[in-house]
Amino acid sequence: MAEETNPNNPEEASADLSFRAEMWVKDKILGYWKPIVVVLAAIPFVALGWSQFQAAKVHKQESISSAVSKAEEQLSVPIDYIGAVKAGADPSQTFDEANARKVADELVEIAKGGEGAGSIEALLKAAELYRLTGDAALRRSALESAAAASEERTMLFAAESALASMDVEEGNGEAAIARLKKLSQADDYIARRATMALGETQEVLGMHGDAAATYSTFLSRWPDAPENAEVQSMKERAEEKA
Questions:
Q1: Where are the domains of the chain?
Q2: Out of 22, 100, 113, 153, which residue is the most buried by the measure of CB atoms under 10 Å away?
Q3: Nearest-CA neighbor of 123 among 132, 138, 111?
Q4: pTM (2 decimals)?
Q5: How buried is 240 (Cβ within 10 angstroms: 0-12 exposed, 13-18 middle, 19+ buried)?
Q6: Residues 104, 143: contact at Cβ < 8 Å?
Q7: What DSSP assignment string belongs to 183-225?
Q8: Under 8 Å between Cβ of 192 and 228
Q9: Could you give the count of Cα atoms lying within 13 Å of 147 in the half-sphere of its Cβ?
Q10: Fold of 34-151
Q11: Tens of pLDDT, residues 124-176
């Protein structure tokens, strides 16, 4: 029979407690040694799997960007030059509207098969082509898809500001103002651009007093912003028309 610990002896009681604690820890560790070894062995493979996952994402983005570039090559003139060609600025160039619509449709399909920045880029370019071909419904659909999928605020602003422009064109100024106000709530470069766009939209809608107030808000929220001289000029213009 094991010798019993004298409970009246503090040193023996402490030693017994330490011994029992040590045995409990050893029992637990040895009891779970297989799962622990499995977990430790799996760590390098998890890291490798994550690395491969990231590499696959990069490769997919590169593939989408490549597909977008190939689609654009089918256009008779570059997207950012089509407006000038339509306006007659370069008589030597012609704009094939049917082909542009076909390319836009292709860009939408490319976006559906991907994700991330490459997919958003495809949707934004498709929306611009639809604008140039006069397909308002398809343009709005592409922009709404881009806005819904945008995790990066620069692309979100590009989509939402274009939608705000469409809202104004379609006589829905309240929707345009709501979009831009939502984007202006943060405290970053995009919030500043959205606030300026909000003031400009209010001016277009004839709300010059509201526009002047928006510009004043800009100047008070961001007193050291690099756009302040421009915003001050916009404020004075709005105040003159109010």
A1: 34-151, 177-242
A2: 100
A3: 111
A4: 0.73
A5: exposed
A6: no
A7: HTTSSSHHHHHHHHHHHHHHHHTT-HHHHHHHHHHHHHH-TT-
A8: no
A9: 19
A10: 1.25.40
A11: 999 999 999 999 999 999 999 999 999 889 999 999 999 999 999 999 999 99
Q: How far apart are CA 137 and CA 139, in angstroms?
A: 5
Q: What's the one-letter identity of residue 36?
A: I
Alpha carbons 63 and 113: distance in angstroms, whole number: 11
Cβ 201 vs Cβ 173: under 8 Å: yes
In terms of Cα–Cα distance, which of 140, 116, 125 is closest to 63?
116
Lookup result for tokens 């619509």? 101
Which of 182, 181, 242, 232 shows the shortest CA–CA distance to 210? 242
Tens-digit pLDDT profile for residues 40-84: 555 555 444 434 444 444 445 578 889 999 999 999 899 999 999
Task: Provide CB contacts within 8 A for 57, sequence distance 6+.
Answer: 116
Q: How many residues does the chain have?
A: 242
Alpha-carbon span 164 to 196, nearest angstrom: 13
CA distance 180 to 159: 11
Give buried/exposed letters for 216-236 (b at 16+ CB in 10 A, else e). bbbeeebeebebbeebeebbe
Burial class (CB in 10 A: 0-12, 13-18, 19+), 121: buried
C-alpha to C-alpha distance for 185 and 165, rounded to whole angstroms: 19
Amino acid making up residue 122:
A
Amino acid at 137: A
